[in-house]
Structures are given as structure tokens and as C-alpha cells.
Amino acid sequence: MKRIYQITLALVFSMGVLTSCEDYLEIPPVSSFGPDYVFSNVTNATKAVAGVYAALGGDHGYGIRLSMYYPLDDDIMMGQGGNPFPDNERRDIAHYNVQPSNTQIRIPFNQLYTGVERANICIVEIPRMAMYENGTEFEKRELRRLHGEVLTLRAQFYTELIRNWGDIPAQFEPSSTQADLFKERTDRDVIYDRLLADLAQAAELLPWATASSSSERITQGVARGLRARIALYRGGYSLRLDRTMKRGANHMTFYQIARDETAAIIASGSHGLNPSFEDLFRGSILAKRREPNGEIMWDIAMTGGGSSFGDSKLGYYNGPRWNNLGNGALTVLPTFFYSFNENDQRRDVTAAPYNINQDFTIVARTLQTMVDGKFRRDWITNPVSINSTAQYFGLNWPVIRYADVLLMFAEAENEINNGPTPAAIEAFEQVRLRAFGGNAALIGSTPTSYQGFFDALVQERAFEFAGEGIRKYDLIRWNLLETKLNETKANLAAMATRTGEYANLPTTMYYEAGSTELNWLNSFYQPQPTPAPAGSASVSWVGPNINTTILTFYAVGFTPGKSELLPLHTSILDANPKLKQEYGY
């Protein structure tokens, strides 16, 4: 075990990146560095912590699987449909048909534990460094920051493990110190309580973000924001070992933690909303520039041009295609598109109903094949990637935004006070006002009852965070996943037959032919005109194709009391005799 410990440190120090769990076991170390060397100065310790961050990226991290396979299907988007299905792969994950042999659940699970192990090593070793207590002011400040970062990173790894696999083995010390590495499942509430304590400590160690801070590095606001998110998971519902959805005891205690942490972030003044929802993505993430308002509190750095270098497939796997390149795999549900107010500027950022021809002219997609647009390739400007044959564009994955802080604060206030306080309403309306371009006359009246405000929050979080890997886990903690999936299926069926609220929607949409921009020539909300507008091209819109392209696949395998969590991969059970299959099968 000591040798494995040294090899891990050597790789973290000399490479600073994670390839994959399989590659890690196959690559011999260039040389072997023990902890005395790696944790001998701030520079080396910083490189070790960079190796912990690196376990977040690549195909088996937030580069695609944790960001675009695992969070679907929900009531906003559908994962890749079509055949082959079942495929014992990504389609099965999205549509809740996951078998323990599924090829996509083994390596991400292992990679998250690789991150835990790397974090454990740093958490033990950094406070042991002589300069942690006796160094220069710079050394002490930097080492405390590194300590806070790895405490937060470990919390993120464990949170991802818990929300996908439930009660999982937990270890908070390096493997080299353990007499028995075959761990049983640990109750998730016990793990969450430890993470909440760790993040309280991390917040004291970390600085607040400043105008020059990088959103790729964890700050105090991130630790507090993640602590609020975990508190809401801890206080919310989840699938338990008896196959029922339950919330932990004393749930109001955890809403209070979420309220206090988000209030502290708001009071700090370190973060704010970008006035433009589009600029948040187009001008920052897709332009690869720092978001100037601090709204993107933490995004995972993706670089290198491939999975082995921790990159992401954002913009390739999802979003519009250019010249038939890219997957365009994630579908914005037609019912979600039509749930937006027509003046809500988030709709046309979130939904991209088009592809791009080789000559850069636009061809519209049908309503039932509309893709998500927050990470669209034609908005990438640094460098321009619209006509690239690459699959990796170096787009960062946002983990937490200030808008989430405001809405978590509003939710916690509503829960604690059995109705929204003026502060809760103000936080809620900050997010909503931005969505309508600052026009208060368009945002409508905010409900003032407990249930009304909660329902508005449920909807607002859908509008705000669509495509950001949050929605399914929100629905689970509210115990609304089954309800919302069933509701969405019923609404899709009604839309397919153009009945009820969907009766007057157009069956055809017309748009300007041969343009490099998508210019619609008729209304989304009225029957199509006759004759067709001059100079137009057309695309099928509301109609029965919803049945074959969406309803055939959408959440088709969902079973309550099972599908809220993933099963453990067969290889995990084979490797650890103390584990057995408890969930998701």
C-alpha cells in the first residue's frame, strides 16, 4: 500500500492530470516521490491539489458522463433517443433501463473514488507541513487555501457518488493507512453530516472571490454554496434501502444551514448576476472568458483536446450540428419549450431548434428534435469551433452559479417560515427579472403562500438551470421525479394530438431560407399561415411525430423505488465482497 501511495503522489505531482482509472493502473511512474517531497513546499503542494481537480474532467467525469448521461431524463430534456435501444449504454441510463453490466457506470464510479483518494492524501498531508503553522504569511495563507480546496473537492466527489448510487463506502483517510480496504456501505446521512462539517471548516480556510479570481478555482463562496446544496440534499428526499423515498430526520435543521450559507454569500457582495442570461454562456463559457460579475462561482476546467487530458464533449455531444458533425444527442422536450413565457429570454438560449449547413446557412430542426443550446458550437469564439471536426472544444462545465444561491436562499426561507419572506421574494425576483431583460412589468406576480411560492420555485429552477445537470436531482430531493415524468408524458401525448392547451399550435413553422441566422416567419403560438410566406423554408412542428421520436423512449424504463439511483457495476461487487446490489436494479 505504501508503494501505491507513492505512485499516486508521483503521478499527481509529475503529471497533474488524470487519464482514466484504467490508464492510471497501466502507466508506470516516471519516478517515485514520497509525501515528504511532494508536500515539502507550496509549489509542490499546489501541483498535488491540481491533480485532485483533474479527477473531475474527461469523458468519465464532467466531460460527458456526469454532465450529459447521468442527469437525464427529466421534465426538461431527454437523453439520446433512437435505436439501438436498449443498448446497455448511454440510452439505457437516460431512459432508466440500467443494468449492473452497463458499460457507462463503472469507470466514472472509480474515477470519483480516485478523486476521493487524492483528496484524502492532500487533506492529511497539507496540515502536517511545517510551514502550515510556521511558514511565512504567504505560505500559511496559501496552504490553508489549498486545504480548504481539497476539503471542498472531496465533498463534491462524495456528493456525486451519493446522488447517483445512494449509500456508498466512505473513507476519509488515505488507503495506505487502512487495515481493511473492503468497506461496507455507509449511510448517506452520516456521509453528508461529515461533508457539512468539512465544508464549514473549508469556508474558514478559503478566501472570498475577487475581481481577479478564477472561477476554475474554489473560493469561500463555492464552499458555502456547495454546503447549502448538500444541506438541501440532506434535508430532502432520497431512495433508501427499503426502496421507499424518505427524507432524513430533522430536515428543517438542514434548510437552516442552506439559508445561513446562502445568506452569507449574498451579504459578502463577492458574487452577482450577469445582466444578460445569454452573455453568461455566449460571452463567458463559450468565449472562454471569466464571467465579470462572479455569477459563475465554480466551473470545471477542461483543456487538452481529448479525454486523456481532461477535456469535455460539450458542444459536440449536445447542441446543433455543423455539416452533420456532432451528436446533437440531447433533446429539449417540446412541452418544456412551450412552458416558457414567450418574453422569457432564457428560452432561446436554452433551446436551439436548428443545425448548420456546410456553407453556414441555417436549417431548422423539427420541434421534437430540438437540442439544448447553452453550449452550442456556433457560439464558441475562442477559437471558433463551428466548422471543427474535433470532438473536444475545451468548454468548462459550470458547477454552481450565483443564481442557484439566490434560489436556494429563497427556497430555504420559504420552508423555514412556512411561506416566503420579503427577502425570499426579492431573491426569487432577481433571477426572474434578469430573465425578462429587467422589465418588471413582464415577470408577473410572485406567489405569497407557501405552496404557491414552492411551485413557482420548482418551475423557475427548471427555466434557469435547464441543461446544467441539476434538474433530475432537484426533482428527487423534492420527491417529484415520478410525478413530473408522468405529467410530462401526459402533456406530450396531448401535444402530439394537438388537444387541450396545445390545440392552436402550428403544425408547420416557416423560416427564412438561405440565411445564416434563424429567422422565424410565423408565430409559435398560432396556427400556421396560408399560403406559406414568400422566400421561406419550412419544418414540421407540433404533431404525431412526438409519439415516435420522444414518447417511445422518454423515461420508458422508469420504475419508482428503483430508478432514482443507479446500480453498482458488476465489477464493483466482484471486487468487494462486503457490497451487494441494493438499488437501481
TrEMBL record:
InterPro entries: SusD-like_N (IPR033985), SusD_RagB_dom (IPR012944), TPR-like_helical_dom_sf (IPR011990). Its main location: membrane. Keywords: Cell outer membrane, Membrane, Signal. It is found in: Cell outer membrane. Residues 98-232 form the SusD-like N-terminal domain. The keyword Protein transport does not apply. Residues 380-585 form the RagB/SusD domain. It comes from the Bacteria. Coiled coil: none annotated. Belongs to the SusD family. Transmembrane segments: none annotated. This is RagB/SusD family nutrient uptake outer membrane protein. Gene3D superfamilies: 1.25.40.390.
